[in-house]
Amino acid sequence: MSFFQKLLGHPLLRKKVDDERLPSVQALPILSSDALSSVAYATEAALGVLILGGSGALGLSVPITLAIIALVAIVVLSYRQAIEAYPKGGGSYVVARDNLGRNVGLIAAAALLIDYTLTAGVSLMAGTQALSSLVPSMLDHEVSLALLLLALIGWANLRGLKETGRLFSLPTYAFVVMVALLILAGLKDLIFEHGFVPDMPPAVQAVQPLGWFLILRAFSSGCSAMTGIESIANGVKVFQEPAVVNARRTLLVMGVLLAAMFLAVSGLGYMYGIAPNDRVTVLAQIGSRAFGSGSVLLWALQLSTLLILVLAANTAFAGFPRLAAMLAEDHCLPRQLSWIGDRLVYQNGIGVLLLVTALIIVICKGDTTVAVNLYALGVFTAFTLSQLGLVLRWWRLRGNGWQGRLLMNALGAVTTFVVLVVIVVSKFQEGAWTVVIAIPALVWGLAQIRRRYRKAYAALALEPDFGPLQVEPRQPPLGNHCIVWIPGLWRASMEALRYGCSIADSVTAVFVLGDDDDPDAIRTAWDRLVGDHPGELELRLLESRFSSVIDPFCDYVVEQEELHPERTTTVVMALVITRDWLDQTLLNQRAVYLFKALSGDYSRVFCVVRYYLAG
Q: Residue 568: beta bridge partners?
């Protein structure tokens, strides 16, 4: 067993992909840890703005919380409809792409990619800050600890969905249980001892006038509770069948839990007269009042908060690779981001997220102050575009009850757009300008990749009237057999076939089937393009037991060499010669891996047929 197999586990059979799907009880913590963990800081974020209007303004936290809960309900109901309409994944990118156009879809995708990376970084840094608050000696090691936790979460996700579900279920449910106990303890205190008359918060002088703009700023800060709601709509494929039903139910459960926990924390904070404190979080202050200062339950609440804040980064690891795979399948990112690894996860997407998140942690030096002002902007951009796309969908399809659905999504689109504008205006100088610039820049990059793929595939495509393949007359028998790697029926593949037929007595073209490949369609196209060459040229379709399409080809080559030691076996593959580094990144990756896999045996004859890409 190799080192990587020991680290990540044995490769999983492709037929086991359905076994890697999760029941709702395990999918909930994986996809909802970000949204549920926001209860730990959403109320505090709103209070941190309201306190600028003086201590008397803190009472507005409850109506602001109710408004946010109403918005949560609208977004949850919206995404439940999106899941039903898009059972393979109904996130903002898919909805916007299909209803608003591909370019608008790229705006939603860019916003979400930025949001996922910031979510991972903020969650990990917030978790390490919570730990350093308990253990001050860890203060100088926050960056190192955040990077270590990042590596552990990445490792858990690379091992596969089930491994992640088992690892992350307990901390998420522990946090939910502790907040539930906090609610019960708080209600008991209010009923039997405290009463329902709110305490006066500490007297704080207003530094800004209490107007609509300050209230909207507090509302937008409290809307950090809504980050992560989209993940379930993006991750429908994670759920066991019936996936759509399970995903819709899980999204509803997450919405109810989020609303109840958020309302309880804000309500208890109001009743106890809690004000923001740089040294003690709002949740910890409420816990001290309800559980008692220094109690075991208070420590359990704080530790569970620490764990879920760290594990909230896992929502990004569930959403980012799947969104990147969708973009890669649409040719907006390199195709290797859509490859499924040996453990049946998008390992390249996980790797990219690890690198970008590590960079964010290092740049921010473990401090969430800058990053936390940015990552709500992306999610509200995605919310707005998704709901606007659904409005146009209902208007176009006009099925049963379409008017009510349209009005609900229209309300959600308007509301989330208002929040988006408030976030941009109120936090522009605090760093939001970087995201305002980054989203268009990323959209431009995605569009450039799509444009280049389109040109490359057009240059590689065969003319409609191509075929049958013309083969040059051969010399007398040479005792040579060619095995030609066929990644697709393109010009480069035909040139490799033509070359193989010119140097060998017989040629086998090998095509390794992917999940979406139709064997009958491939054989029909082969017969049209290649024609009839009995005994000389045959097509062999291979299936892969695992995710790799390279290993079956290599195994076939070794098998043929062992079965026919009397003849020379030459492996022929086409290599597209590109014009620049971008094209090299977008094309030829499997060909490069194949060459490395087969060229280790120096006795093997290996030929590369170069095809120069025009344009």
A: 480
